[in-house]
Structures are given as structure tokens and as C-alpha cells.
Amino acid sequence: MQSPANGPDRPSDGNLSRYGWTADLAAAFSPYRDTGLIPARIVRVDRGRCDTVTGHGAVRAGTSALHAPEPLLAPCTGDWAALRPGPEPELAALLPRSSAIVRSSASRSSHGQALAANIDTVVVTVSLAIPLDAGRLERLMALAWDSGARPVVALTKADLAANADAVRAEAGLLAPGAEIVTTSGADGQGVDVLTALLSGTTVLIGPSGAGKSTLANALLGEDLLATGEVRERDGKGRHTTVRRELLPLPGGGVLIDTPGLRGIGLHDAADGLEQVFGEIEELARDCRFGDCAHDSEPGCAVQAAILAGELPRRRLDSYRKLQRENAWAASRNDARKRAERVDRQKAITRHQRAIYRFRGPRP
Questions:
Q1: Cβ contact 118:98 at 8 Å
Q2: Nearest to 21 by CA among 80, 67, 87, 104
Q3: Helical (H) or strand (E) element with 246
Q4: Residue list for the binding site
Q5: What Å distances lie between residue 291 and 156, 262, 300, 322, 328, CA to CA?
Q6: What are the residue ranges in the chain where pLDDT is below 70?
Q7: Would you say 194 and 249 are in contact if contact means Cβ atoms under 8 Å apart?
Q8: In the chain, what are the domain boundaries?
Q9: Which residues form the EngC GTPase domain (predicted)?
Q10: Tell me, what's the pLDDT at 43?
Q11: What pLDDT, on the 0 to 100 scale, is given for residue 356?
């Protein structure tokens, strides 16, 4: 009798290629084949269940078997999984992630939260309809660079902008190393340029009202995602996207739209910060002291650059603020892990004492 994994009903993995299935993923999945599991990609997660796409098509599956104390390890949109088919499909395991956008959990705890997994391109959306928030862009770029994917900045709502060129120039200084594209989902401006930069799995991130869903619809070629109005005074909008969702793009690859990010806490994003503030890192190498705090130390190359007008003081202030936040999150995470180790050791000790009392003293 043939096993389900090798029998005539085995789904064709080739049907998953448009969702990013590769030979490397097939190799990672090979240990699960002989157990009757099938590969699936998570399209959407909500209320302990998820929508997936498999070689047979869409499958609604449970996730209770993958319960983890760390929110960072919970299934999220973009994950590849081993799915147990049947009357009540269930995810049995997640394949290792190649990349992920991770922020501190919305509760401001020491846990991290994965917003999207296995991504290749991160599009950071910035509305041209309101003044540029430099600190927010730097924060989003730190998340994007730290994900392991390639960041692109999409300046949206160009049809409503009077100073698009000036904002583009400023964004280039705040997001070094990233492509900057001026777009308008309303009239299609720049959408073809942005499309040419996308590859594999793309995720859109940004605040509410930045035009993510409108831009996503332009990339998808049809109005699949709801859009909403924004307040004129601050450009903020309601969350028309309420959950992360993965959709195939007409020219290949897939797109993940995300809800607007009110809180963008950093979680172990040191590498991302180094990339975003690369000019400060470069200047710091020329400081007289290796542990220079770039404050009032003699021979500080960073302060010299500020005095010479080569580096805005706001840029250094933002760098310090995000470094402090990242260090705080890291220390909270370390403290929580230490507490968990202590709790586990106490539980083991209590168990051993209980066994000793049950057995009684040795004769």
C-alpha cells in the first residue's frame, strides 16, 4: 500500500512555484514526505487557524499543534509549513525561515513578533501628502534592513504632492542604500518602475494612511484590497487592512499587505541600525577613543562632522534614541530568558523533592 506522500493523490509541488516554492524548500521538506504531510504556504493567520495554499489549492488549517511560548515562533503570513491533510487539516511543523520582519510585540513585552516571513523585498511606504517623518522612516528602514530582505522606499500619493523631488532627496539621505521610487496608486505613476524592482515575496509596510492598500491594488492589477480616506491634518487613516495577507502578483512572485503600524518597536535590530546610520558608523571609526560616546570627548569625528555641517544633529539624536530602545529590548529579553531558566530549575528541584518525599528516606 502506497503512503499518502508517494501515492497518486500526492499534490504537485510545481503548483506552488508561483508562491515561491524552490528546490531548497523541497530539500528542507523531504523529512516530512514519508509521514503523509504536504507542503503549504501560509496566506493568512487569524484566531488560531490559518489559510494556506497547497498543491491542491486553498486549505483552511488549524495551528494548535504549533503553539509556542515565544510569539516570534508562532506561524505567520509567508511561513512555509508541513500540513497534515484530512477532514480537519492541521499544521504539523514550520520550515526554517530564510528571512522575517520582526518588531517588539505590541504589548511592549520583551517578546518579538514576526510580521511576515520568507520575504525577498520590503517596500517601505511613505506618503507624499503629509510632511516626511524622518524618525519613522529611519525606524522602518532599521526593521527592513534587519529582516534580511532588500528594502525599497515607495513614496506614495505623488498625485497629491507639491514637493515630491525635495522629499525624494531627503528620503535618500535617511535611507542610504535603498532604491527610492515615486509612485501614485491613483494614476499609476511609478508603478511599473516599482514592479521592476520586486522579486520573490514582497511585503508592504508603513503607517495607516500611507497608501499601502492603494499601491498594492495597483501592483496586483485589480482592487482586491479595501482602501479608506485619511484625515487631511495628519494624513492618518483607519486600518482598512486588518490582517496580513499573501496574494500572487500578475507578473510573478507574491505580495503581502500589512495593517498600518502604529507601534514600531525594535527587537534585536542592531544590524539594521548599523545599515541605516552607516555614515555615523563610518565616522565613528575615526574617533580618537574606541568607546567614544560622541558627546564631548576630544577627537570625536562624529561631533566634528556635526560642527562642520556635514552631519545633522537630529540624525545623531535619532541614532542614539533607537540604539537605547534596541538595547532596552535586548536587556528585557535576556532578563526574561534568565527568569525562565530559573523557573525551570526551580520546577525541577520541586519535582525532585516531591519524588524524594514520596519514596521516603532510604533505609
A1: yes
A2: 80
A3: strand 245-248
A4: 156-159, 206-214, 287, 292, 294, 300
A5: 41, 34, 10, 18, 19
A6: 1-14, 105-110, 226-243, 260-263, 332-363
A7: no
A8: 13-94, 100-257
A9: 117-262
A10: 95
A11: 56
**CATH architecture for residues 100-257:** 3-Layer(aba) Sandwich (3.40)
DSSP string, 5-70: TTSTTPPPGGGGGGGT--HHHHHHHHHHHTTT-EEEEEEEEETTEEEEEETTEEEEEE-GGG--SS
Q: What are the percentages of helix, strand and coil residues in the chain, rounded to 5?
A: 35, 20, 40
pTM for this prediction: 0.82
pLDDT score, position 197: 96
C-alpha neighbours within 13 Å on the C-beta side of residue 249 = 23
Give the residue ranges of the annotated binding site for GTP: 156-159, 206-214
Would you state the cell numbers that stand for residue 270, as one nine-digit string?
Answer: 542592531
Three cell numbers, residue 334: 535576556
3-class state of residue 101 by DSSP: strand
Q: For domain 13-94, give the CATH number.
A: 2.40.50.140
Show the cell assigned to 181: 521610487
Q: At what angle do helices 134-146 and 313-359 cross, to 10 degrees?
A: 50
CA distance 285 to 90: 52
Binding site feature residues for Zn(2+): 287, 292, 294, 300
User: Which pLDDT score is estimated for 63?
Assistant: 93
pLDDT (0 to 100) of residue 9:
35
As a whole number of angstroms, the distance between CA 285 and CA 161 comes to: 39
Entry field: residues in the chain: 363
Q: Residue 245's pLDDT is what?
A: 85
Residues 67 and 108 sit within 8 Å (Cβ to Cβ): no
